[in-house]
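Posting this for the archive.
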Amino acid sequence: MKRYKIISLLLITASSLTFCAMKQELQTEFPQEIQSAFYQKMKNGNENTATHFYIEFKKPLAVNIELEKIYFHNQESSVDEITKSTFVAHFYQRNKKEDLILDSNPAKEYGNKAPVIQKSKFDLKPNEAILKYKKDNKTQFFKITNLIEKPLR
C-alpha cells in the first residue's frame, strides 16, 4: 500500500511539472494598427551583411506599449525608435569562412571546428517575424506575416 502512495505521488508531481514550462502564446492582433512592416538587406564589401527590419504604425505608439525584440531569420535584435510611429531592428551577419582541412587521413582533419547551429526560439517561415512587446508591463508576442523585402533607395 505504501508503494502505491509513493508511485501515485510521483506521477502527480511529474504531471504537474510538465505544465510549468508554459509555451509563449502568440497574440492574434496587435493592440495598435500597423501600417507596414518590411526589411531591407545591405551588403558591405567586407562580406558583412546587415538586415534592417522596419515597423511603421498609423498612429504614434501608445504609452502603455513598449517594443522589446524582433525574432527574424533565426536571429533576435532589440527594437530602436526612429520616430514615435517608426521603429527599426538591426540584424548583422558576418560571412566568416574558415578553412577546412580535408584529407583522406582523418587524423589530419583533427583541427577542424564543428559548425555552430543555432536553434531558433520560434519556428518561422522566411517572410515571418515575432515581435516581443510589453503592454501594461505584461510581456506578449505577436507574429508578423507576409513581410516584404524592399530594395534600398
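The two ends are 77 Å apart (CA to CA). The chain has a mean pLDDT of 82.
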